[in-house]
Amino acid sequence: MTDRNGDDPRALQFAALLTAAKSGANWGSTTLWVEYSPAVTAFLRARGSREPEDLSSEVFLAVFDRLPEFVGNETQFRSFVFSVAYRRLVDEFRRRARRGESEEWIAERDPDSSPSAEDDATDRIADRTTLSLLNDLPADQRDVMVLRIIADLTVDQIATVIGKRSGAVKALQRRALERLRKNISPTRTPEQPSSDGVE
Fold it and tell me: Which domain, by its residues, includes 134?
């Protein structure tokens, strides 16, 4: 929706917010953090960061450090933020590989994923099921799907983040969806035990 002058109020609001953050206004940086950090942390957690909250803080320190040189709209800013997050995550994986650490993140072993209340249990079962399905995908397909589902990025934004062409991202997404369809049994729900009796 645009106003009488043909301007998009959301775009104007973001431009004002970005200008405030660039000028060093604490409220501007805080608002950007509150708006974008939950999605960044969720992305990092879903992709296996050992300390997603800490890494998210590092991401935003880098974002704020580079903010004066950023030029663009809200969509481009979102791509910029997730590009930084993706590179920081790759750096973490490389550090772990150099140290000989190769263990994949498993929801059941994450202390942050243990239920805090009974009414949270169903959501957590669904989250674990989703993460389990995503973790079965090859790494490049998993990256695309996590950025699409959790970070809510468009195909073009994902292409910018992972450094591939939009057509390649679409192909990865299509292959991932085909693989997920094959892995999901229509007769099984998260509450039902698997065929080997393990829930």
Answer: 114-193
Contacts by 181-187, CB closer than 8 A, 24 or more apart? 183/133, 183/136, 184/133
Query: Residue 187 is part of a domain; what is its CATH number?
Result: 1.10.10.10
Q: Which of 49, 78, 105 is the last residue of a domain?
A: 105
DSSP symbols for 45-80: HHTT-SSHHHHHHHHHHHHHHHGGG----HHHHHHH
Q: What percent of the chain has pLDDT over 90?
A: 58
Number of domains in the chain: 2
Name the residue with tokens 């939009």. Answer: 166
| 33-46 pLDDT tens trace | 999 999 999 999 98
The answer on 30 and 74 residing in a single domain is yes
> Is residue 163 located within the same domain as residue 187?
yes
Asked if residue 33 lies in contact with residue 60, where contact means CB atoms within 8 angstroms, the answer is yes
Residues 6+ apart with CB under 8 A from 191: 125
Q: What is the pLDDT of residues 55-103, one digit of tens each?
A: 999 999 999 999 999 999 999 999 999 999 999 999 999 998 888 754 5
Q: Is residue 91 part of a domain?
A: yes
* 188: Cβ contacts below 8 Å, ≥ 6 apart: 194
For 104, residues 6+ apart whose C-beta sits below 8 A from its C-beta are 48, 135
